[in-house]
Amino acid sequence: MNKEELKQRVKMFAHRCVKLCTKLPNTQLGRHISGQLIRSSTSAASNYRAVCIAQSRATFIAKLAIVIEETDESYFWIEF
Q1: Helix-helix angle 57-79:3-22, to 10 degrees
Q2: Which letter does DSSP use for residue 2 in this model?
Q3: SS3 for 50?
Q4: If both were cysteines, with which of 56, 72, 74, 77 could 41 make a disulfide (CB 3.0 to 4.6 Å apart)?
Q5: CATH number for the domain formed by residue range(s) 3-79
């Protein structure tokens, strides 16, 4: 899988998470989970874009670590 393909997939993941959040109940818990999932999934997508234009190996690694963390957090909220 190349960078562009993965960039598109992570963007679609964020989009799907946002769509999922619109279906959650309008309760305190639903709003909390929705906010957390939207933040983590969109962060993963935007940070992967930053990975693709990293100017150094160190920046590449740092941004990729953020993507992994945010994706894992998104997984937690979906599972929760």
Answers
A1: 30
A2: -
A3: helix
A4: 74
A5: 1.20.1440.60
Query: What is the residue extent of each domain of the chain?
Result: 3-79
pLDDT digits (tens, 9 = 90+) for 17-68: 999 999 999 999 999 999 999 999 999 999 999 999 999 999 999 999 999 9
Q: 16, 8 in Cβ contact below 8 A?
A: no
* Both tokens assigned to 66: 């953020």
| DSSP secondary structure, 58-79, as one string | HHHHHHHHHHHHHHHHHHHHHH
The secondary structure of 25-47, three-state, reads CCCHHHHHHHHHHHHHHHHHHHH
| 17: number of Cβ within 10 Å | 21
